[in-house]
Structure formats: structure tokens, C-alpha cells
Design brief:
The chain has one domain (3-226): outer membrane lipoprotein receptor (LolB), chain A. It contains seven helices and 13 strands. The chain has helices spanning 3-13, 33-46, 111-118, 120-129, 142-148, 153-165, 245-249, and strands at residues 49-56, 63-75, 80-88, 95-101, 104-109, 134-138, 173-174, 178-180, 183-192, 195-202, 209-215, 220-226, 242-244. Helix 1 (3-13) crosses helix 6 (153-165) and helix 3 (111-118) runs antiparallel to helix 4.
Length: 260
Amino acid sequence: MTRTTVAAVCVCASVFAAAPAFADGGGASDLSARQLADEAKQELLDATSLHITVANRSDTGRDVRTPATFDLRLDTDGNCAGSLRMGVGGANGGSVDLVKRGDEVWMKPDTTFWKTQVGGGSGDLAAQLFDGKYVHGTTDDEMLKGFADTCDLDAFRAQLDDGSAHAAQQNLSKGDATKVDGTAVVPLTGSDKGSTITMYVTTDAPHRLVRATEKGADENLTMTLTDYDKPVPSATPSASESVDISKLNAVNPNETPPQA
């Protein structure tokens, strides 16, 4: 999983309870902050699919290889669809569209992505040879597998569960009801290693996490979760839109890119 994905998981894990504090349902006004957090965690662990968006505005230096944003729909069958934009701290690492169905993967980088993520002559040549095309292959290819791992909902949930098992048992405060994108929520605020973490959990049952933020001296992360249990779009790029990964692996970095 990408570093931004892991950081986003930690936003939640650091304030989820290590031990359950379940209540027998009810509205948010009837539950403590810890009970709401625990129910939200369970809803995440039980979800069969999610739409996850993350924005990383942290001030940790320029880095073209860390995603600044991603927008992914993913499920427990290993399917996903979405995009990533690379580069934090003002760096521009390009963007890539990503589709995965089973063990098949399609990725369509833009020109900047090819030049910054692949680099050298290989990146320049790939940018010209595959411009506007999806690179298609399976998770047997290491590069495609690396991106496909971002689509792993089970890995996301495992890190959430493992991380919360070691979380500090700090107090959570329950704020006044508000709205996130039109959804009524209750903010739950805690702290971890100098950062303030806020989780926005729906006021009505089932109590689900719809947004989490982490803000500190250098950290500024926002994760939004929607479409619990809604299917991932099943459309895949056509053969005419795709190039086999073997052609990328055969790119010679010493070859001169064709002139436009």
C-alpha cells in the first residue's frame, strides 16, 4: 500500500479503541465518543466495498513519489477503479488512472508520471510510446502489483485492525452535531503524537465513519469514506485502449525516443 494509504489508515487506527465498547445501537446522542468510535470501526471492518478519497497536504518536503491525492473504489474481491495524483510539498509527480478486476490490472499514467516515476531514458520513451494508453497485465508483474496493492481493501482493514490494537487509549471528546457533504455527523476528537485527529461519524445508525482528519505541525491529511457496500464499477478498458505490460518491460533506456 502507498505511504499515503498507510497514513490515512493510521488517522483512524490511532483513536479507535483496542478493546470493544459496544452499545446496543441507538442514536449518537445516546452513545459515548468511545462507543461511537468502536461502532464506526466495526462498520469499516465489515464493509465489503468502499469509496475512499485521501488528500495529503502535509508539509514534509517535496516528494514526487508519494501520492498527494487518491480516489479509489475498492472491494474485498480485489477489484478497484480510480486514480492517484503523485507529489507532495508542491512536487508534481503526475497522475495515473487505475483499474483492477481480479488479478488483471490496467494503469494509464500521464506524461509527467512516466517521466518522474520511471525516470531517465526509459521514462521519456515510455511517455511517447504509451501516451493515452492503459498498460495492461496481471499482478504477476512487480510494477503492476505495487499499484494493485493500493486496491486491497482487506489490507486496508488489516492495517486498521492491527494499528488500533496498539493505539494509545487517549480520551476522545464528542463535539456538536454538524454535517459532512450533507450527512449529519458527530465529530470525535483525540490526539496522537502531537497531532489532532478528528473522526466524523454518522449520527444515525449504522454509525459509520465518513471523514477523518489529522492535523499537526507537519501533518495535514483528510480521508473521506462513502458508498459502503456499493459495487465497484465493473467496466474495464478495451483492447484498443490497452498495451501489454511486456512492451513496457522491453523498453530500452538507451533507445532514442521518436521525434514528434
